[in-house]
Write a structure and sequence with these properties.
single chain; alpha+beta; 6-stranded antiparallel sheet; elongated
């Protein structure tokens, strides 16, 4: 027999005790959070005949006074929540709504995962790619919400949940209301709604009790700016016209900066009117009609730790050649040691239609992975430098081309068309699927390289920021050459070249291993999950897939829209595995000893 525990007296909003059972069904497990309007609890649903009992969220609301208008508003909000969640899988479902002891209760779906306050924190700058994905995901939800004439009114990191599958959800609709509903405040009537929101994320019209759909746009913009700058919203200064000053604290493309600045205009008339309008602008940017013109800070940046002086890595050993496949030698003039002639062994996998996938034999060896503390514009996630031993393997001579992709996958996802251009707008999941299909077709085990294999292959025995030395020029790689005016440290030209698109693979000279496009053109997916640094990293060159952030995968090499710092051999970036973008592609690896 279930034991009922006496609830607090009316008008005395004390916390619910662990073990309290509401409606003879919902057993309180622990307090999740509290605020001015009530608390949120984790609870067990005792009516479901399984063990362990499924979890749910109990939200208790206790207004200062109980009046008919307040009761009507809460009931209306419950109806809205129910309708919203029924038609959108990234809004928590409402299971029940009831009143007890002059308090109101909402029973909602429990989301397994963490809120974005675990990802966004002071001093931590996240990537432009992260920011774009965050904007896309939440604007898609908000567009649906606004189309139903609802304003969320409290968008902030704590109210955005990342589920265990990596998808984002918008939670805590306790502040929502239908547009046009007016609220009774205590015993008086007013034309203004209650001012609900969070300092730093709440625009002026909402603070005055007059929220609009563009108020949500403002709050989301401030959230994304926090992610890019690592500065909490209330700490950012404003200019004389009340506009937030933030771009000097972030490394972000001009196009995305323009979108975010419009989202956070002080007066609501200067913003996007609703989420649909903002999403259209963002999608136009992502699809390429408004492309990035400044560097993407595609990584977490925190202060760099002090590292010991690294030892010089041993050169690649030619004595340990890759396992035998039917290879042939090719000669090349590489951009290394004064453009000396080089030679490498290559295996050509014939895909049909006179298209081959050329795989270069990479000799085994030992190198020092990461960047030294003396390297300009380095980031702390490139630390600590550590010695890694790589076994012989094969790596794609070029990033996977559009012709190769089409023969294996049967479609054309790239924005910039051309058979010999690298395929782009492919996610990590897409790249894995390509490897699996290619392996089935050929009977060989094609895969993504590990992060260590990629950096080893990129460096090709060098220790400088780029495999051809300390500086980057537009005749060496495809990147954003308009860098000097921004105070660049890796180039000498007063004016560079910015091609604003991909180029055919092999358009620039290779490194000492005979690999092309290791710097710029497209970012390249690696197998590993994201780790904030190299503490505990494998020393055998294998992919690091334990621990870390399983919701993010590694990108290396920079792309056509990045500045030189992002194209360095040591530069790392992590992003969700389903993200696709016009600057992201991949190349494949092959270990013949693991044939299938």
């Amino acid at each position: 027999m279930r034991k009922s525990i006496k609830l607090p007296l009316p008008g005395v909003p004390t916390m619910l005790v662990v073990g309290t059972i509401l409606r003879n069904r919902y057993e309180i497990v622990k307090l999740l959070g509290s605020g001015g309007f009530g608390e949120t609890y984790l609870a067990n649903d005792l009516d479901i005949p399984v063990t362990p009992k499924p979890k749910c969220v109990v939200k208790r609301l206790h207004p200062q006074t109980i009046e008919p208008d307040i009761q009507r508003l809460f009931q209306k909000e419950a109806e809205i929540l129910y309708k919203l969640a029924q038609n959108h899988e990234r809004i928590p479902k409402l299971f029940a709504y009831f009143e007890e002891n002059q308090e109101f209760y909402l029973i909602q779906e429990f989301i397994e995962g963490h809120d974005l306050s675990k990802e966004l924190s002071p001093g931590k700058k996240l990537s432009e790619t992260y920011a774009i994905k965050l904007l896309q995901d939440i604007l898609e939800i908000l567009a649906y919400v606004h189309q139903n004439n609802i304003i969320h009114r409290d968008i902030k990191p704590q109210n955005i949940m990342r589920r265990t599958d990596g998808k984002l959800m918008l939670i805590d609709f306790g502040a929502v209301k239908e547009i046009g509903i007016q609220k009774t405040i205590l015993s008086g009537k007013t034309s203004r709604t209650v001012s609900i929101g969070t300092h730093g994320y709440m625009p002026s019209e909402q603070a005055m009790g007059k929220p609009k759909p563009s108020s949500d746009i403002y709050a989301l913009g401030r959230t994304v700016i926090f992610a890019l700058t690592g500065i909490e919203p209330y700490l950012l200064e404003e200019d004389n016209e009340g506009e937030v000053i933030w771009k000097n604290h972030a490394s972000v493309s001009d196009a995305l900066a323009d979108i975010l600045s419009k989202m956070v205009r002080d007066h609501f008339t200067g913003r996007y009117a609703n989420a649909t309008e903002a999403l259209e602008a963002l999608n136009s940017f992502v699809s390429g009609s408004a492309l990035p013109t400044a560097p993407s800070q595609m990584k977490t940046i925190i202060s760099a730790p002090v590292l010991p002086t690294p030892s010089v890595p041993s050169p690649p050993s030619k004595a340990s050649a890759a396992p035998i496949l039917p290879t042939s030698s090719f000669q090349f003039t590489g951009e290394f040691v004064n453009r000396q002639q080089g030679q490498a062994d290559i295996f050509a996998e014939k895909l049909g239609n006179n298209v081959s996938l050329e795989m270069v034999s990479i000799p085994g060896g030992t190198f020092l992975m990461g960047s030294p503390i003396t390297e300009k514009e380095r980031c702390s996630d490139e630390s600590p430098q550590h010695r890694v031993t790589i076994q012989p393997f094969f790596l794609g001579k070029y990033p996977v081309t559009q012709a190769q992709w089409e023969l294996v996958m049967g479609n054309k996802p790239a924005k910039f068309k051309g058979n010999n251009r690298p395929v782009e707008q492919v996610s990590w999941n897409n790249a894995i699927e390509f490897c699996q299909k290619l392996s089935q077709i050929t009977g060989r085990n094609y895969c993504l390289p590990s992060e260590a294999e990629w950096e080893y292959a990129c460096r090709a025995g060098t220790t400088t920021p780029f495999h051809f030395g300390k500086t980057l020029t537009p005749d060496l790689a495809n990147y954003n050459g308009n860098y000097y005016s921004f105070g660049g440290l890796y180039c000498w030209e007063l004016e560079g070249v910015y091609r604003q698109q991909t180029t055919d693979v092999g358009s620039f000279r290779p490194n000492a291993f005979g690999l092309y496009d290791m710097h710029g053109n497209v970012w390249e997916w690696c197998q590993d999950v994201w780790h904030e640094n190299y503490n505990g990293a494998p020393s055998d060159g294998s992919a690091w897939e334990s621990g870390g952030d399983s919701n993010r995968r590694l990108l290396r090499g920079g792309s056509w829209y990045n500045y030189p710092r992002n194209c360095r051999a040591a530069y790392r970036s992590g992003i969700v595995p389903d993200f696709r973008y016009v600057g992201i592609g991949f190349r494949v690896a092959l270990v013949p000893a693991r044939t299938i």
